[in-house]
Write a structure and sequence with these properties.
The protein has 317 residues and is mainly α. It has three domains: 99 residues; 105 residues; 83 residues, no CATH class. Helix content is 56%, strand content 0%. The protein has twelve helices and no strands. The two termini are 27 Å apart.
């Protein structure tokens, strides 16, 4: 495997960097999942073997970054699922402090259908309590009235078992480990909440709707919801497309911060500012004040967003 513009030494350095990337991603493929070192090394070896079998020549760096990150995540989650199934313990490699719940539900039970095609596993009765705090928080921020939040939340929950027109598969069937349900439900709730608020706004603006007659000067009348952040020229971009195009524009720490906060969305800035690995990468001592830790984190975050924005404006995404 060669590359016309790279010396053998440069290729070696590049692979060393991606080995670290793969190990980092495999160790924590998802918020709430943490694999031990011996598993990580085995996963990294499999990922590199797959890379060598897939590519005859070195692909562009962006494609390499997307491949290694995606393969490491997939292999780590599949390894976690296998270990949980083998031990009949849904909490193998579970990291409660970075998860939605102290203990996982049994994913196989949630994915199992009855003869009639219905999801009737006992854990479906426990799932709403786990997802409700996050779902209600999202809907509240989007402007859904408090009186409607529970109904809208249950409608979002129902989307987990709604078959796709293309293949009949449901979202709950497409995940490998229980922890994936957090970011999945976050995305689904956000999208459904935006649609619900827009629909309500449209109905209120119809002449035959009771609220249409309200005076614009009525002090109790709510302001219209803010513009949806999903609108605009980049509205249909997915994280995979962004990472494939701009994977080489950010370093390992920057991608970790962006993924944790905006993709997996399962930690706060305070959590990241207290993470020993993040602090080490930022060069901040663990004994430093929380104010200093947050300041450094915010600087790295802002730098990552600026660099990513510049990359998106200059590359074909």
């Amino acid at each position: 495997m060669g590359h016309p513009e790279m010396q053998q030494k440069d290729i070696g350095t590049l692979f060393e960097r991606y080995w670290r990337v793969v190990c980092t991603k495999a160790a924590r493929p998802l918020g709430g999942v943490c694999l031990p070192a011996e598993r990580v090394e085995a996963i990294a070896t499999r990922v590199f073997d797959e890379f060598l079998e897939t590519f005859d020549e070195l692909p562009p760096k962006g494609e390499m970054s997307a491949f290694f990150s995606g393969a490491a995540r997939r292999e780590a989650l599949e390894e976690t699922a296998r270990c949980r199934e083998k031990s009949s313990d849904p909490d193998v490699f579970h990291e409660p402090e970075h998860a939605l719940s102290e203990n996982n539900l049994v994913l196989a039970g949630l994915q199992e259908r009855s003869e009639s095609g219905e999801y009737e596993g006992a854990d479906w009765e426990n799932l709403p309590a786990i997802l409700r705090p996050r779902g209600a928080s999202i809907l509240r921020r989007q402007g859904v009235p408090e009186a409607d939040i529970e109904d809208v939340f249950m409608e979002c929950l129902a989307l987990l078992v709604k078959p796709r027109p293309s293949d009949g598969q449901t979202p709950i069937e497409m995940i490998t480990v229980f922890e994936e349900i957090g970011p999945l439900f976050t995305t689904m709730t956000h999208n459904y909440g935006v649609s619900w608020v827009r629909k309500q706004s449209t109905q209120r603006n119809r002449p035959n709707h009771p609220s249409y007659a309200e005076s614009i000067d009525d002090p109790d009348r709510k302001a219209p919801p803010p513009a949806d952040r999903d609108s605009g020229p980049w509205a249909d971009l997915t994280f995979d497309r962004i990472y494939c195009a701009c994977g080489d524009c950010l370093d390992e720490l920057q991608w970790h911060i962006l993924t944790a906060l905006f993709v997996e969305a399962n930690v706060t800035r305070g959590d990241l500012a207290s993470d020993p690995w993040v602090l080490d990468k930022m060069g901040v001592d663990e004994s430093a004040s929380m104010g200093k830790k947050r300041r450094f984190l915010n600087q790295h975050l802002q730098s990552a967003l600026d660099q990513l924005g510049n990359c998106l404006r200059t590359r074909d995404v």
